[in-house]
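Practice problem: predict the structure.
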Amino acid sequence: MPALAAGTVPAASLLQLMWLASPALPIGGFSYSEGLEAAVDTARVTTELEAASWLLAQLELSLARGDLAVLAQAIPAWQVADASRIAALNAWVLQTRESSELRAQTEQMGRSLLEWLRNHTTATPSQILLLAELQPTYPLAFALAASATGAPVRECLLAYAFGWAENMVQAAIKSVPLGQSAGQRILSALTAAIPEAIAHALAMPDHARQAFSPMLAILSAQHEVQYSRLFRS
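Answer:
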């Protein structure tokens, strides 16, 4: 077997990141479609190609410029215990969620990940206390969990983005609906696009970070009163 290249993420760190990215993590990510179900209901997404295009656009226009950019700043903030920076980033996430559903999602997943952290040795008691006092959002809770793995920030963002991609592909499979092979093709396209999205997020200064996705916000608001739903967003 060839030797590992210099700079390879240690096995323990890699396993922790895989754990955090897993759809089996009990934080409820599987129950959200982030507006995709409303796009299906309004016939904006009806095929594999349209689902792939929708999710690739969401990755580039929303995730890379919002949550991933927050994570890129929040992970080092947790590592140096910069409480004011952590609080400011958490407040930004709360203030920029453009519908009640999207805000409820980040709050619920943040609380669930906080409870997961309480039952593991990943975070210190002081970190748990700080997070609990913040009305925690999912990106900030994930950043805390990821910061303790010792993995580089880029690898932490890869785990977050891939976990998002897996959940969204499953939402597409159920709501469009699509077959498993179609889902794997969409996931392949998202996986290929994730590194560039992360590079963009890592290079983004605070003043450029944004969450302006008007059609996504409109569809999310419509989903709140949609007659029949599989997902919570």
